[in-house]
TrEMBL record:
Residues 170-423 form the Chorismate-utilising enzyme C-terminal domain. This is Salicylate synthase. PANTHER family: AMINOBENZOATE/ANTHRANILATE SYNTHASE, ISOCHORISMATE SYNTHASE MENF. It comes from the Bacteria.
Length: 434
């Protein structure tokens, strides 16, 4: 059953989906924001869990566990095709480690490492400028959903809990110095190294999403509780999308300066960004890589770059940005496009094989969802995978935030550490204690 109510005026969609997530009435969920629309997808009818060793598929009261073959993307594609989804969209997330099979880096990935989760929701709540549309809910649930959405519009913004992001127990500057030496030795051209900041309190993830979304300007945003993980984030770019016409799009961002420090400071930072040789080279080689990856799955001659080196503001930072598009080849599908583009070049390295190897060696602990993707897959094969950065993560073991920077031959440890602080500024000031 689908019910549309145009009488409900949604002034704050982030507050509405945060309230639905906080209600603890709809099981696991994924909130996904694309331009002009928020979706709250919840109470899975079934789902797929992929680890480095096993594929687990659940539907209703049945579940199966098996070894998988091929690549992770192929395993998920096959499993999803076999589920009786009845026209429903799948939602989920992919870990950074999902990429290891593409770059012969599986020795870095223990057998039980989570690679991805997909779920098929029973309930979907869509909110946009026209009101609210609910699919799959009972009459009682429908009434509750409307109550929660309406009440959320009157609820005050939560208060943040300050956290210090400047300590560095991970030895980030030393790791940057190691990467610079390896780059100058010719092992690779670029690598994105990250650092993890453990949080000393339990996080209210839905409330953090609401507060953080009010202070960010993401390309996409997400909030989820799926596969033993809670997360909320403000994605700066798409890893990959394939629309209903077969157009493949990726949006590499590389080159960063702080933003939100006042008009004069922001203009000065922008001027510095667009003229800095290190940042320009870093961006150009990222676009070159993205172009080759789209071309590998696109019709010959259809791949093109637009908005080359535009500047886009994303919360506490501004980036050099470009868009790369190509028409999907007839013998390829959306999972092929994702596999070609994943992980984002702006979150791994160049060339990717050397960059991914360096990430596994120098980042030390598993990345998990950080620099992976939140994904949506339609029954018709449309796919979006948004890059997971500027996010907070939480499991039963604790909560953390994480940020990285692109290391090239001209990098200095002090500046790259400063860049991680600038990026953490998109999330750290808006954390809400649970």
């Amino acid at each position: 059953m689908t019910v549309t109510d145009e009488r409900v005026r949604i002034l704050d969609p982030a507050a509405a989906v945060s309230a639905l997530a906080s209600a603890q009435r709809f099981g696991e969920y994924v909130v996904y924001e694309r331009p002009g629309q928020w979706v709250f997808a919840a109470d899975p009818l079934g789902g797929i869990e992929l680890t480095a060793e096993e594929l687990r598929v659940r539907w209703a009261d049945r579940s199966t566990t098996s070894r998988w073959t091929g690549t992770p993307a192929q395993a998920l594609d096959r499993a999803l095709a076999e589920l009786p989804t009845e026209g429903r969209t799948a939602y989920g997330w992919l870990a950074f480690e999902f990429c290891a099979w593409s770059f012969e880096a599986t020795a870095h990935v223990p057998a039980r490492t989570p690679l991805g989760f997909l779920m098929i929701p029973r309930i979907e709540v869509r909110l946009d400028g026209n009101g609210i549309e609910v699919t799959g809910a009972t009459a009682e649930e429908l009434e509750l959903i409307h109550q929660l959405v309406e009440q959320a519009q009157q609820t005050a913004m939560p208060d943040p809990f300050p956290v210090d992001i400047t300590p560095d127990p991970t030895g980030y500057r030393d790791r940057v110095a190691t990467a610079v030496r390896e780059i100058r030795d010719g092992r690779y051209q670029k690598v994105i190294l990250s650092r993890k900041v453990e949080l000393p309190f339990v996080v209210d993830v839905p409330a953090t999403y609401r507060l953080g979304r009010a202070h960010n300007t993401p390309a996409r945003s997400f909030l989820l509780r799926l596969g033993g993980l809670e997360a909320a984030g403000f994605s700066p770019e798409l890893v990959a999308s394939v629309d209903d016409t077969g157009m493949v799009t990726t949006e590499p961002l590389a080159g960063t300066r702080a933003f939100g420090r006042g008009d004069a400071a922001d203009r000065a930072a922008r001027a510095d960004l667009v003229t800095d040789p290190k940042e320009i080279v870093e961006h150009a080689i990222s676009v070159q890589t993205s172009f080759a990856e789209v071309a590998a799955v696109a019709e010959p001659g259809s791949t093109a770059v637009s908005d080359f080196m535009a500047v886009r503001e994303r919360g506490s930072v501004q980036h050099l940005a470009s868009t790369v598009r190509g028409r999907l080849a007839a013998d390829r599908n959306s999972w092929d496009a994702l596999e070609s583009l994943f992980p984002s070049v702006t979150a791994s390295g160049i060339p990717k094989r050397g960059g991914v190897d360096a990430v596994f060696r120098l980042d030390r602990d598993p990345r998990g969802l950080y620099s992976g993707a939140v994904v949506t897959v339609s029954p018709e094969g449309e796919l979006e995978a948004t890059l997971v950065l500027r996010a907070v993560y939480q499991t039963t073991d604790g909560a953390w935030i994480r940020a990285g920077a692109g290391i090239v031959a001209a990098s200095t440890p002090a500046r790259e550490f400063e860049e991680t602080c600038e990026k953490l500024g998109s999330v750290a000031p808006y954390l809400v204690a649970g």
